[in-house]
Each structure stands twice: as C-alpha cells, then as structure tokens.
C-alpha cells in the first residue's frame, strides 16, 4: 500500500485504470465519479481527508478503498524461477504453440512479419 509522496509518485507512473474495473462498490464509484474521480490515478493522487469528506465515510473505509485500488493496479509479483524459464510465453496461445512454448530466453530474438504490415 502506498503512502504520502510514494503514493503520488507511483500514481503518476501507472496507467489510467477505470475505477469501475477496481472491484469497488457501485455507490463508491458513483460518488467518486460525481466528484470527477474516474481512474485509479485520479483517486490515488487525492488526499485521504478530501476523499473521506467527498465520500462521507470513515477513514477506515477510505483506507480500504485505497488499498483495493492500489492492489488492482499493482503488477503481479513474478518469481525468479519464472524469469529464468527456458521459454518466455508471449501469452498468444497459437504463437506460443508454434514456438514450442514461447520465445527462447537468454538469446537475442527478432520477431518480424510480412513487409508493410504494421
């Protein structure tokens, strides 16, 4: 969970995920939207006391909302064993199948397509 300046720095780097996709209660999302807060970044850049006043909730509820949104935008942890895999999956099932599991790790790989496409 991010606090103070660390929260603001992290929020500036993250994408603009819609609060509708952050598993918040509908009335919280609606209250935030009425106040021009639509994305995780919008929310995480706000002061806790301001949010408490806007939402008319307890400080504990604000903390829970911030935690839920922070967790929804934070990248999933990756184990070292996954990084050291022999193949790096592309997450494209057909391509991974054609490559026998993904791109080989530990080597330089160039992926190209037909000329003029893309």
Task: Write a concise keyword list for the protein shown above.
single chain; 118 residues; mainly alpha; DNA polymerase, domain 1; 2 domains; 7 helices; 2 strands; elongated; four-way junction DNA binding
Write up this protein.
The protein is mainly alpha-helical and 118 residues long. It folds into 2 domains: 4-73, DNA polymerase, domain 1 (Orthogonal Bundle), CATH 1.10.150; 78-118, no CATH class. The chain has 7 helices and 2 strands, in the order ααααααβαβ. A two-stranded antiparallel ribbon has the order 1-2. Helix 4 (48-55) packs across helix 5. The longest helix is centred in the middle third of the chain and has 15 residues, at 59-73. The mean pLDDT is 84.
The CATH C-level class name of the largest domain: Mainly Alpha
- Low-confidence parts: none
Helix content: 40-55%
Strand order of the largest sheet: 1-2
Subcellular location: Nucleus
GO molecular function, one term: ATP-dependent activity, acting on DNA
Keywords: DNA damage, DNA recombination, DNA-binding, Nucleus
Protein name: XRCC3/RAD51 homolog 2 helix-hairpin-helix domain-containing protein
